[in-house]
Queue: 2 jobs
Job 1
Amino acid sequence: MSNRFLALCAPLFVALLMAGCARAARHEIGVRRVADGLPAQSDLALMAVQRGAWIAWAGALSAPDLFVQPVGAAQAWQFPISGVPSQVRLLPLAEQRAALLWLERSIGSAPRLQCATLEPSGTLRRAPFDLGSAQRYSAVPAPDGGILAFIISDEQLSIARLDRLGRPFGAHRLAESAYLAVATLDRRDQVHVLWLAPGDGALWQLLYVAFEAALLDQPAPRMPAPTLLAVLRLADGQYFESLSAGADEMHLYAIWNVVSVRQGGESARLEGVYFPLSAPSLSRALDLSALPANLRGVSIPFDNSLRGGAPTLVGSLPRYVVYGALTGQGVLRVQGLAAARAGERLVSAAAALGTNNALHLAWLVQNAQGATQLRYAAFLRPQPVAAN
C-alpha cells in the first residue's frame, strides 16, 4: 500500500476511529486519572487482577525506584533499587501474588534481569534477585502458576523458569542467535516461541518452535527443531521495533513492527503471519489493512484465562490507543480510545486482559508544558462475531 494512498485515507480513518471511540465509550468500565508527575521515559506495565488492575512504572533517573499502584488506591507502593530500570513487567503468580520483572543497569555494567515477588497486599514476598545478564526479554505465566521468561543475552535465547512462589529453578538454551523473542500459550498448555534471528546481510529469519510445557520439567529437555516461518529483509535505516504473538483455538498469530528512520522522522510498518497450530509450515500473511499506518507500541496481551475468543491487538498513535480482534480474515472490529486531549501527546501505553472479557488499558500522556499524567480505562474486549 503506497504512502500516498495512506495519506489520502488518513482523514477517513480518523473519522472512523472517532466513531469507534464513541461506540467504545458505551462499554466503559472506568476511566480515571491514576497518578501525576511520572517521568516521561517511564515504561508502563499492567496486570489485570480479580477486581481491576495493577500498574507498575519506573521512577526518574535521579531516583530510579519502582512503583506499583492498584487502580483505585490512594498511592503507589514504592520499591527502591540500585540501578536504572527498563522493560518493566508485571505478571501473575499463584494465589493472587505477582512477580515484578525489569532490566537493571548500573554504571559501567551490562543490564541484568531482576525479579521481585509481591503479596496481594503489595508487600514484598521476596526482595529483588538476579536472573542473569539480559539485553532483552519477554515473559508469560506458566500453566503451573509460575512464570516462563525468555531471555536474550549475548544474542543467545534461553528459557528461565520461576515456580509458583516466584523462585528461580532451571534454565534451558533455546537458540544460539536471536534479536527479539516472544512466547504465548494455547488452550492445551502448549508453549509457542517465536524469535527474529539475523541472517546474511539485510536478511532476517522469523523462527518458531512449540512444545508441551511439561517438557521443561525434564533435567535436560530435548527441544524440537525450529520451523522457519519467513525470511524478512531490512533496508538501510530500518529496524525491528516489536514482536508479538497470540493464539486462539485454531491458529497462532505473529506480528512485528518495522520502523524506518529518515531525516524527516520515523515511520512504521506492521507485518504479520498466521498459521494452524498443527501446521506452522502453512503460514500465510496476515491482513492488517484495517489498521492505521504508523501504529506503534504494538502488542498482543496474553489471555491468562484462555477461555476462547480472538486474540486482541493493541497499538498506539500520537493521541489514540487502537485495538481490534485478530482473526484469519484480518483484524476485525477495530476501535480506538482518544487517550490524549488537545495539547497532549500519548507517550506510552500498556494493555492486559482480565476477567469478564475485559480489556484493561493504562497510558501516560504529556502536555506542552512537560507535565505528565497516568490514566486508566477498561472496556469490553472486541470480538469478531458477538456484537459489543
Job 2
Amino acid sequence: MKYIITESQYELLSELERDWRTSEYSDEYPKLRDKMVPLIINRIKSYSKSDDRINLYDSDNNRILSFLIYKGGDRGELFFSRDFADVFEKMLPHPLWYVHDKYLMSDVFESLFPDKKVVSVRSANMS
C-alpha cells in the first residue's frame, strides 16, 4: 500500500527520522562525530556536480556519497555506499555504526556543502 503525502509532510517525517536517537547512545554521538567526520572527509578526494545530483568519490574513483537534489536546489536525499559502510562497521565496536551511520554521513556532506540540506539518508549499493 502506498500513501500520498505532501512535501511538507515528507519533510516533517524526514526531520523526525533524522533527529531520533536512542537515549542509550545519544550522549556518544558528539564524541564519535568529532573523531569520525574528519576521518571520513579525508577519504573523499573528488566530486562531480550536475543540476540534479552531487557525487563524492574516494582516491580509487569509487562513489562514496550521492546527493539527489530536489527541485529548488538546496535540499535533497543522501545515499552512501554500502561498500564504504562495511569498512566502518568492522572498525567501530558494535552497534556504533548502525546507530549513528546516517547522522555521520549527513554531517560529513553538510560540512562539505553547507548550502545544501540533507532531508533523508540511506545506504545503497553503488557501482
